Amino acid sequence: MRIVDITMFWTPDSGGVRTYLQAKREWIGRRSDLEHRLLVPGQENACDQGICAQKAPHLPFGHGYRFPLATRPWVNRLKHLRPDLIEAGDPYVTAWAAIQAGREMNVPVVGFYHSDLQRLVSSRFGHWTDAWLDRYIANLYRHFDQVLAPSQVMANKLRSLGVTRVHVQPLGVDTEHFHPRLRDPAVRHELGLNADTHLLVFAGRGSREKHIPVLLEAMTLLGAGYHLHLAGSHMPAHLPNNVSRSNGFLDRQHLARLLASSDALVHAGDQETFGLIVLEAMASGIPVIGMNTGAVSELVVPATGRLARAGSASSLADQVRVVLANDPHGMGSRARAHVLAHYDWNAVLPRLLDHYLALTRPQIKWPDAAHG
Prior knowledge:
Elements: E1 2-6, H1 16-29, E2 35-42, E3 46-48, E4 51-55, H2 72-81, E5 85-88, H3 93-105, E6 109-112, H4 117-125, H5 130-141, E7 146-149, H6 152-160, E8 166-168, H7 186-190, E9 198-203, H8 212-222, E10 226-231, E11 243-245, H9 252-260, E12 264-266, H10 276-283, E13 288-291, H11 296-299, E14 305-308, H12 313-325, H13 328-342, H14 345-360
Parallel strand pairs: 1-2, 1-5, 2-4, 5-6, 6-7, 7-8, 9-10, 9-12, 10-11, 12-13, 13-14
Antiparallel strand pairs: 3-4
Helix pairs in contact: 2-3, 4-5, 8-12, 10-13
């Protein structure tokens, strides 16, 4: 079976969707019965080792993303790749191209609802767009043969809009790359911290929905003895004395070392669609303190961390104190065990393949009872 993924969410630092697609490609590459192709926007039309680019213009202020404008060139390119199944990973032009190509080739098309389009738009332009976006999302995702959502909260959102063929398909984490063995006491020295200072970490893009100001307020409440390091782009320039930041994104190797060397991850985001950094922290053997809402609350199960009231810096600070006073190492060990059991890519991707096989296998035709 040849699987073709199509998405505009593909840049050198594009986060969860890119991580998912890379993990899928590696996993499929170890199987003799599957092939994978990836079609993404690029500067020119080209293919290299199964990754194909279709020319598309840069999205202004889009952090490196390119935005396709016309559907037909993408439909033609998909047909040229001759898929047995297509998966669309964004809700824009490429999604409609996938649906059209699937109809013309008579192959199933899966829509993966990675991002909450309504939340992304309303956070920038206000909620006046909500009703229109609800109609758009419902119309788009009803056209897919199957829709996958990375969390229950995302699946519930789609079902509330009348999309019926929805299944929860969590993402995963590379548990060999994110591993407690990378813990390095030198990290505290590099940050200028005493050995007894509690080191907290947050990694991600400093966008509005991450609520970085809530993290900073919580750190002000925690005061001396606690230090937060922010790893990611677009972080504030002015920080409390007990907060530091990296100069942009860390590569995966440095991020894994930082996570394993910290005492806990703190996450103030209350609208996460999945929360991949939460899994990476848990796989690294550290507990997570997040908000009791959104997808993060689905990942942080009892004894692996704590959940604070959404939007409350004081509640977040209180939960940090509780975690760090009550065997954070034990919590981190249980967090890693939970991830190994449920979110290692080798556990997650076979479930994804089951969805594909259900769509591509010929339907069994049972004999008429009257004829035995």
